Amino acid sequence: MPDIPELIRVNAVLHAESGKAKKQADLKTQLKQSLKGVGHESVDVRKHALSKLKQLLHDNQVNMLHNANSAKLSAIRETLLAFSLESLNRV
Questions:
Q1: How many distinct structural domains can be found in the chain?
Q2: Is residue 7 part of a domain?
Q3: Least buried of 16, 36, 48, 79, by fewest C-beta within 10 Å?
Q4: Is residue 68 part of a domain?
Q5: Are 36 and 49 contacting, i.e. CB atoms less than 8 angstroms apart?
Q6: Max alpha carbon distance in the chain (Å)?
Q7: Domain membership flag for residue 4
Q8: Helix or strand holding residue 49 (H, E)
């Protein structure tokens, strides 16, 4: 949402609700949601999804590196790769 005075309250609510949703969803779920947008037909939606995916990976990189050999991270890597390949096939 643009930062204009009329939308300050709307932006605040969206930001707060977005933060709640992110805290409730685990990393695998967040990756799946981000990757769905990567394969969208709209260029703007794909750009936004890639931006969110980049931020998600950046925010979780330390955790992912510390758990590089864990089964949970292995499942996340497999999901990320599968959705990436699926998205590329749609484009």
A1: 1
A2: no
A3: 16
A4: yes
A5: yes
A6: 48
A7: no
A8: helix 43-59
Q: How many C-beta atoms lie closer than 10 Å to residue 77's C-beta?
A: 14
Q: What is the residue-level pLDDT of the chain in tens, covering all 91 positions?
A: 556 787 888 888 887 777 655 555 677 788 888 888 888 888 898 888 888 888 888 888 877 777 666 676 677 777 777 777 776 676 5
17 falls within a domain:
no
d(CA 26, CA 74): 14
Long-range contacts of the stretch 21-26 (C-beta < 8 A, 24+): none
**pTM value?**
0.53
What is the number of helices (H) and of strands (E) in the chain? 5, 0
Parent domain of 63:
26-90
User: What are the angstrom distances between the C-alpha of 58 and each of 11, 42, 52, 85?
Assistant: 23, 24, 10, 21
